[in-house]
Description:
Blueprint: E1 4-9, H1 13-16, H2 21-28, E2 34-40, H3 46-59, E3 63-68, H4 71-84, E4 92-96, H5 98-102, H6 109-127, E5 136-139, E6 143-147, H7 151-162, E7 166-171, E8 185-186, E9 191-192, H8 193-206, E10 210-214, E11 216-224, E12 227-234, H9 248-252, E13 258-259, E14 268-269, E15 272-273, E16 285-286, H10 292-295, H11 301-305, E17 318-324, E18 326-329, E19 333-335, E20 353-355, H12 356-363, E21 384-391, H13 407-421, E22 426-431, H14 441-451, E23 454-457, E24 460-466, E25 469-476, E26 481-487, E27 489-494, E28 496-498, H15 502-509, E29 536-538, H16 548-566, E30 570-573, E31 578-580, H17 590-594, E32 600-609, E33 612-621, H18 631-635, E34 641-643, H19 648-658
Helix pairs in contact: 2-6, 3-4, 6-19, 7-8, 7-16, 12-13, 13-14
Amino acid sequence: MQRIGVFICWCGSNIGGVVDVPAVAREAAKFHGVVYSAEYKYMCSEPGQEMIVSAIKEHRLTGVVVASCSPALHELTFRKNIARAGLNPYMLEMANIREQCSWVHQHEPEKATKKAVDLVRRAVAKARKLEPLFESAIPVTKRALIIGGGIAGIQAALDIADAGNEVVIIEREPTIGGKMVLLDKTFPTLDCSACISTPKMVSAAQHPNIKIYTYAEVEEVKGYIGNFSVTIKQKARSVNSKCTGCGTCWAKCPTKNIPNEFDMGMSTRKAIYIPFPQAVPNRPVIDRERCRQFVKGKCGVCKKFCPTDAIDYEQGDEFVTENVGAILAATGYDLIDWTKIYGEYGYGKYPDVITGLHFERMVNASGPTGGKILRPSDGEQPKTIVFIKCVGSRDEAKAREYCSRACCMYTAKHAHQVLEKIPGSQVVIFYIDVRCAGKAYEEFYLKTLHEGAIYTRGRVSKIYPEGDKLIVKGADTLLGRPVEVVADLVVLATAMIPSAGSADVARTVGFTVDKDGFFQEAHPKLRPVETNTGGVFLAGACQGPKDIPDTVAQASGAAAKIIGLLSHSEIAGEPTISSVNEAICSGCLACQGICPYRAIEPKEIVERLPGKQVTRVVASVNSGLCQGCGACTVACRPGALNLKGFTNEQLLSEVDALCQ
C-alpha cells in the first residue's frame, strides 16, 4: 500500500488569497492512502523543500503530491527535491491549483476551494498508482550541426567550437553571412555591419573545429538526442575546390544583366558570380538556369579562361552524412512580400516605393549606388523621403498581428542617414507606436527627432504618382486631421516573417512551428532556446522577430546549452515514454503514422507455438526519439501502447476519483 504525503502551497497570495489552503490540507488528510498532509506559504522555497524531505523520511512516504503551480514550472524542482530524500523522482504528482484554480476563480473563493480539493483528490488517486521509473543512458556524439549560416549560426558555431567541440554549418546560399552582411550600419552605435560580421565569417571559416557546407540543404535527419545522423544535399556549384577566387571567370562571362539578389535587384551580376566581395567561401557558383552553357549547350568561356581548371560543368549534387549529438536551427527570416497585399501602396508598381532592405543596400558604400541615396526611377537625389512603419506587422486583417521589433529602430537609423547624407532634406515617418526597448534605443530615437525627423502618428491610406513625385495620403491621429506629403522616395518597414522553407526544415528535423510559422520553443520563459525535441535548439529570428543584439545573445545561450550537452559522454534518457505490450500488439502500425517524432518502428518477433515458430511484426518504441506526447496510445486499437507515468490505469483512477 502506498503511503502518500500531500503538500499544499499558498504561493503567497497567488493561491492563498483565493483558496482556503488550510481547509484543503485538512480534507486531503482524509483521502485514502494519505498518511501526511501539510501546507506552507512557499513550498518551492528552501524551507518548503526541507519540509518535504523531512516528511518523506519521518513518515516513510512512498509517494508525494504537491498542490501548487503548473508542473511546467516546478515539476523538475520537486522531482529533484524528493530524490534528495531517497525517493524515486517519478513518485511525484502535482495538482495545479494556481493557474487552473485560483487564477481562474479569483472571485469565487468557495468554488475555488472546492475545486482545489477535487484536484488534490485526483492527484492522490493517481499517486497511489505510480510506479518507479528509471532513466536510461544515451551515448553522446560530441559534434554539433547548425542549420543556417547567418550571424546567429556563426556566433553559436564559434562559441561551441571554442569549447573544443566540432561544428558543422549548413547554409543554403553560396556564402555564409545571412541578412546582416546586407546592412550598412547597425543601431544604436552606427557601427559598420560588415566590419562586425565579415571578421566573424572569416573566423568561422578558419576555425579548425568548424566545417562549412554552403549552397547546401538538410535532406534527412535520423536518430535522437546525442545521436543524430544528418544527410546533407550539397548542390552542384559547377566550380570545384581548385578555385582560388581570382575573378577571371566572372570577368570574362558574357551572360550579364541578371538581377543581383544580394542588391535586392538594384544591380546586375553575371551567370557565374560570388554574391559580394567578402563572401565566405570566396568561390563562385554558376547559375545553371541562366548560364549559356547549361541553357544552350554552348559557351564555355569561364572554363576556357580559368587558370586553375576549376570549372566543372559535369559536377552533380552530392549527398553527405554527418553524425552529430545536437542540432541548432538558425534559419533566420525573410521580409513579407508587401506587393501582394498592399494595393494602397501601389502593389510594387512604383519604382520609388522600396523596402528597408533596398534602402540598406542603397546607403551601403559597397551597394549599387556606392552609398548615395538615389531614386531608383531616375537616379536623382531625393529631397523628401517618407518612411512607413508596420507594413505587414500589427495588421491582423491583412498580414501579421505581431510586432517585428526591429523596424522602429532601423527606421530611425534610416532617417538619421538621410538627414546626414542629404543636406536640406525632409524626413516624414508614419507610425502606429514607437517601440524602443533596447539599451540606448530611446536615446537614439530622440536623437533622430532632434535632428529634424517628423514623426506622424497614423497610417497611410494611399500612395500614387503625380509627375515625378509620389503623393502619400495618410492621417495624423494626434491632430485628428488628414495629411498629404509630396515625396520623392517612400521606404516601407516591412514585416519579418519565417524564412522560405523553414517549415520544411522543422518537418525534416522533427519539431514544431507556431501559428505564425516561427519555430516553437519548448517554454517561452524557462526553455527559450530549446524545442520539445531533445537535442534540437533554436537561435535568432527563426524563433521570432528580433534584432542583432538579441540574436547574438540567444545564439550564445543556445551554444551554452549545446556545450553542456556535449560535455557528457552519456546523458540520461527521459523515462516517461511509451512502451509496447507485445503480447497484444496487432502490428497494424497505426501508431507509427501518428507519431510526430518518428519514434515508432516495426520490429519482428519470433513466437514459439506447439510444433512451430511464428514470426510476426509488432511496434517498437525508440526511447531516444520518444518525447512522451502520448499520441500513439490514443491511436492504438488493441490498447497495446501505454505511456509510462500516464498509463491508462493511472488516468482512469483520476477519473474515478473525480466521479466519487
